[in-house]
């Protein structure tokens, strides 16, 4: 198993999901700085490309859920009403401000997805490029003393190819330029698409550890892979031929409670680890607990002390750090 399974004290790794996104708008440099200060081991970077091929840090291929694009460029949406990052140059992206994630309710009003988080309103931060964010994290490592990891996701690689862009190459070019392409203990690359991961491993020859994200088949991810198959014994063996670990949805591990109130878990963690795979489930949120879970601490107890995952993605890295310290 890779040497980067755990941090130096033997604890599972804490991956700040889109930064400290439980406290500040996701994927802003402010959210990454806060996660760094909270002691996250890795900071996540979701990456999409602009029209001119620049890798930027943004969770969606769309801009409107987290930026003011509708106000700044009201006439730039496609026929489906969505504003795609790939339709904008980096110079245009620079004009946007990031706000808390929002959605439109049945009345057409913009409301926060997580109402108790940072107030929904005009944002003060922009969208960073991947290069800018990496240099920012490296600067914090220098000033605070540390070696915080990057956890980079290739968003919609097949869709990007259909738009004439190769996101895998673009990301590796940035990692090479910033000196992270050979830091195997400090960088993970993750994707929901198995073909993209095979391409990274076998064609682009990256030595960085790869994580196969596992979705639900009904989510409509940018992949033709069968996620139910990937969770099977044979599927996990196949993943081990091209990747170093899996990133399952936490509900693929926690299955609820029995009629007598006992916690039910799947065998996914132990079966994956038996195949030499790391297990880094997503997403652990204090304000979005699964049914049958009383509080955030109980959720962490199940995953960290009962099924013993190798790390986890959380919007609240400080709470996980505090739990581990106990």
Structure description:
This protein is an alpha/beta fold and 326 residues long. The chain has one domain: Alpha-Beta Barrel (TIM Barrel), CATH 3.20.20. The protein has twelve helices and 13 strands. Strands 1, 2, 3, 6, 7, 8, 9, 12 and 13 form a nine-stranded mixed β-sheet that branches. Strands 4-5 form a two-stranded antiparallel ribbon. α1 (29-37) links the parallel β1 and β2 (42-49). α1 runs parallel beside α4. The protein starts with 12 loop residues before the first strand and ends with a helix. The model is unreliable at 1-7 (pLDDT under 50).
The backbone outline, from C-alpha atoms, is: globular
CATH architecture: Alpha-Beta Barrel
Secondary-structure element order, as H and E?
EHEEHHEEHEHHEHEHHEEEHEHEH
CATH class: Alpha Beta
Class derived from helix and strand content: alpha/beta
CATH topology-level name: TIM Barrel
Distance between the termini: 27 Å
- Tally the helices: 12
State the fourth-level CATH superfamily: Phosphatidylinositol (PI) phosphodiesterase
């Amino acid at each position: 198993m890779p040497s980067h399974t755990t941090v130096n004290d033997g604890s599972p790794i804490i991956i700040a999901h889109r930064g400290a996104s439980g406290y500040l708008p996701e994927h802003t440099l402010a959210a990454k700085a806060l996660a760094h200060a909270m002691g996250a081991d890795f900071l996540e970077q979701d990456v999409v490309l602009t029209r001119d091929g620049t890798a930027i840090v943004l969770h969606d291929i769309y801009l409107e859920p987290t930026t003011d694009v509708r106000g700044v460029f009201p006439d730039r949406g496609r026929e489906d009403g969505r504003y795609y990052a790939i339709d904008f140059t980096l110079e245009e992206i620079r004009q946007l401000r990031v706000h808390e994630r929002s959605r439109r309710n049945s009345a057409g009003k913009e409301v926060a997805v997580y109402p108790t988080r940072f107030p929904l309103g005009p944002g003060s931060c922009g969208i960073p490029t991947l290069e800018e964010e990496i240099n920012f994290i490296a600067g914090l490592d220098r000033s605070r003393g540390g070696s915080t990891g990057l956890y980079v996701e290739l968003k919609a690689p097949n869709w990007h190819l259909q738009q004439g862009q190769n996101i895998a190459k673009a990301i590796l070019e940035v990692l090479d330029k910033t000196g992270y392409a050979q830091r195997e203990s400090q960088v993970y690359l993750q994707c929901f698409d198995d073909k993209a991961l095979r391409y990274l491993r076998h064609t682009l020859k990256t030595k960085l550890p790869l994580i196969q994200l596992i979705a639900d088949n009904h989510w409509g991810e940018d992949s033709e892979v069968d996620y139910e198959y990937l969770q099977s014994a044979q599927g996990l063996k196949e993943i081990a031929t091209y990747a170093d670990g899996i990133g399952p949805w936490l509900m693929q591990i926690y299955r609820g409670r029995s009629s007598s109130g006992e916690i039910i878990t799947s065998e996914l963690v132990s079966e994956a680890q038996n195949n030499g795979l790391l297990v880094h489930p997503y997403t652990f949120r204090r304000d979005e607990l699964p049914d049958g879970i009383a509080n955030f601490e109980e959720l962490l107890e199940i995953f960290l002390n009962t099924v013993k995952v190798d790390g986890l993605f959380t919007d609240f890295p400080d709470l996980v750090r505090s739990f581990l310290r106990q």
